[in-house]
Amino acid sequence: MSEAIEYERIGDIAVLAANNPPVNALGVDVRRGLLAGVERAEAEGAKAVLIYGKGRTYFAGADIREFGKPPQDPWLPELCARIEASPLLVVSSIHGTALGGGLEVALSTHYRIAVPSAKVGLPEVHLGILPGAGGTQRLPRVAGTEAALDMITSGRHVRADEALKLGVIDRVAEGDPREIGLAYVQELLDSGAERRPVSEMPAPAPVDFDAVYEQVLKKGRGQISPATAVRAVQAACEAESFDAGMQRERELFMELMNSDQRKGLIHAFFAERAVGKLPELKGVEPRMLHQIGVIGGGTMGAGIATAALLSGLQVVMLEMSPEAAHAAKERIAGNLGGALKRGKLSQAQFDEIMENELTLATGYGALSNVDLVIEAVFEDMDVKKQVFTQLDAVCKQGAVLASNTSYLDINEIAAVTKRPQDVLGLHFFSPAHVMKLLEVVVADKTAPEVVATGFALGHRLKKVCVRAGVCDGFIGNRILSTYRTCADHMILDGASPYQIDKALTDFGFAMGPFAVADLAGLDIGWAVRKRKRAEGLDPRARDSNYADKLCEAGHFGQKTGKGYYIYEAGKRGGVPNPEVMPLIEAERAEKGITPREFTDEEIVRRYMASMVNEAARVVGEGIARRPLDVDVTLIYGYGFPRYRGGPMKWADLQGLPGLLADIKEWAKEDDYFWQPAPLLEQLVAEGRCFDDLNKEAS
């Protein structure tokens, strides 16, 4: 017997207990142990088998350490078929989670009991695949076609009470999973219950699968795994036999296994787990955090305060007047009200936070005892310096002083204090209580324990934290500035903002760059352009002013109701603003540019190439330590389609030599913008890719 599966005999019942911490993942030792346990129970004359998990869960899914490696016998589909075919009565007792292969094992047993807190699900689509061990064939037979389609295409986790109603489990009972499982098996034996293989149940009723397929494909913005899973469920309804349905599931599973989207999603999965693991922080303890300060109660500051309060931290919110402080409190209450409405917060918790955990203040003295303070004031260097001069004077020794700046130089901000070692950047993304990304910006003199504290805070706030160095825009906004400039160049040369937005949403972005600009506020980009012009643009740089004219007319996007698009109250999205194209056409005429047509493919290729090229500079300069840091930043902060793995993974899959060749070709028309990044040229010359750099850094 495998040590990962413990065998015990209690009367007529053989008990198979999974003992493969931390989550009883279905690695090869577990699979072999389950197979051996069923065979032993049959050989010894048991009448039933109980399968449960020791520790905190039933089988929580596949073993991620086996991803990308050749499969070892027994394969999970074969194991599930063997469990189901056993002449003994086989029962699963579920606690924790039964996810992916875990639920497929449970569905291959004849009966299922669960504790009330258990959750089940088939989340394989999030890894670019579909359930490949009978999940698309068995789940529709127990839960019905529509419920199975919902669970499989969304990958959502389903609570025990809902799973009971759907027929995924047969009973919910309080207690220890081993004890309730044994009692249930004995009850089944005593009542003479027969084996109940799901594969022998009638095929489920069909639905309009073509319509569902199109709907799921549209909802997934081009991600193919959920839509492909629809076709697998269709086989459960329409195939001549269960075995034929299983064969179709296997064919579709292998199609997805060989797809670039699967490679992209697996990369994103591992990159998210690697991004917060920094060698420089190994063994470094973060400072204690009990109370934090937030300066500025606008949308960003209120969002940061909300996230902190929801994580159990006390917050001192500093504003410059009682009126502004009251408005900040209202914003925070509104944010928390959303959590209250969704059931994430009870009324008692809401009241406790608003009455006792949140403190409003109008003077810096209120920050004298906070452990960390984050300023979220206007994006102006002089204003930031004034704030940090005050903080240096009033904050206790050891307090971490953080700036939420999106672009500005943290070294310059730190230099106005007597404690530059305590200063770092914490760049949140708006709305800060919703968006998952946090750039932890490390200045030249930032102490390691301060960096560790930034990461600890981010993790407590349930953020995905990325380490960034100091430069204009750090990782994300620096790259954004470049690919947005590429879009502006295409506008001057003949594309429209609306064609570009559509091409990029078709590619999989959540929004196109011009819709994003409207959402963020066109005044932000306007301020950046004015700052850069004041600092002096290179004479070779192509500049454009059509967007400035929108801002000069008071059109800042969604907040004013008009930008590249016109927005009406109560309606999602906007319609193209008819004032935009005349401004663009006038600038083309002024610059003597004859517009040409762009295909959607060329728009995507140029946009992505500019993104990758600048990202290669960011990695080459050490602003991002690894290509995967860029990928995680763009996925979580900039709406990059997760199923493409991030821009660096996309580039690897496209082929770096071809991208470099395109960049060199475009440099013939603009050798300033299209300068190949040295790192990109080096990798191509050496026949390597970005992922090689990730492996070296791990």
Automatic annotation (TrEMBL):
It comes from Ruegeria marisrubri. PANTHER family: 3-HYDROXYACYL-COA DEHYROGENASE. Pathway: Lipid metabolism; fatty acid beta-oxidation. Its main location: other. This is 3-hydroxyacyl-CoA dehydrogenase. Residues 291-468 form the 3-hydroxyacyl-CoA dehydrogenase NAD binding domain. It catalyses: a (3S)-3-hydroxyacyl-CoA + NAD(+) = a 3-oxoacyl-CoA + NADH + H(+). GO terms for molecular function: (3S)-3-hydroxyacyl-CoA dehydrogenase (NAD+) activity; enoyl-CoA hydratase activity; isomerase activity; NAD+ binding. It comes from the Bacteria. Gene3D superfamilies: 1.10.1040.50, 2-enoyl-CoA Hydratase, Chain A, domain 1, NAD(P)-binding Rossmann-like Domain. Belongs to the enoyl-CoA hydratase/isomerase family. Keywords: Fatty acid metabolism, Isomerase, Lipid degradation, Lipid metabolism, Lyase, Multifunctional enzyme, NAD, Oxidoreductase, Peroxisome. Transmembrane segments: none annotated. Residues 473-567, 603-688 form the 3-hydroxyacyl-CoA dehydrogenase C-terminal domain. InterPro entries: 3-OHacyl-CoA_DH_NAD-bd, 3HC_DH_C, 6-PGluconate_DH-like_C_sf, ClpP/crotonase-like_dom_sf, Enoyl-CoA_hyd/isom_CS, Enoyl-CoA_hydra/iso, NAD(P)-bd_dom_sf. It is found in: Peroxisome. GO terms for biological process: fatty acid beta-oxidation.
